[in-house]
């Protein structure tokens, strides 16, 4: 850990201890190394969030937006399209990256194969939005070719499928997303509506979260997708809570923190309110809070580095 990260870690530890002493007792940090382990997870979470936020200030190779190129990265591609003023394509790439996820070790390969149409004309937003079912139909026809190539869904999306007829078929998810966005006549008008309804970045996030009725996009996928739009500067939105209802890891981490056990009898809604207060007190965003608690509960007494 470098000196900068060490300073952040020490500051978080001081603030958490102060909060526990002056605001609400945090039973879960009692015991050997638990506070150190938690604060280290916060540092990792902050670094992950900052990495994405800094994409906009860096030079980006055009190869990042080319699905036929080994450099392809949908998040950096989204930034390139943002710079070109193409909000539809930028948001579309964020959606696809959330749906497919980044697999270890095959990376973005599955998304590259599908978004890149196996080397043919890419399935850009303009091409896919012509008909919500057109990309799913292509996936069904191309299924055997796609399946024969490397590439898998990321860990958060491991129950999704490109198999035609599957309940979790990717074509259904994509069609649902396209119908949601086109009902508002595009991403720009959808985001504009969110800003109007929400009145501020947190309110806009909350409105989009509630309005996002997309097949197989549950709590985690919606949270990840919307948070990424905010981090990349595609929408002026920010998570207003950790949205613990429906989670596993983050909820266990919150219960451990406040109740001393990952199975403590504290409701998700009550913990959400407490975490908002803690977040404001220690100066850490809700996404960093959610991510850190999720990873901390996996190994509360001994810090382990996770991918997020």
Name the average pLDDT. 96
Shape: globular
Main sheet attributes: strand count, strand direction, barrel closure:
none
Query: What Rg, in angstroms, do the CA atoms define?
Result: 20 Å
Tell me the β content: under 5%
Q: Could you tell me the number of beta strands?
A: 0
Please report the distance between the alpha carbons of the first and last residues.
17 Å
Order of SSEs: HHHHHHHHHHHHHHH
Residues in helix, %: 55-70%
Q: Work out the helix count.
A: 15
Structural class estimated from helices and strands? mainly alpha
The low-pLDDT segments are none
Report on the architecture of this protein.
With 308 residues, the chain is an all-alpha fold. 56% of the residues lie in helices and 0% in strands. The protein has helices at 3-22, 34-53, 74-83, 87-100, 109-115, 125-128, 134-141, 143-147, 170-182, 187-198, 201-211, 219-231, 249-259, 268-282, 286-296. Helix 1 crosses helix 2, helix 2 packs across helix 15 and helix 7 packs antiparallel against helix 9 (170-182). The two termini are 17 Å apart. The model has no long low-confidence stretch (mean pLDDT 96).
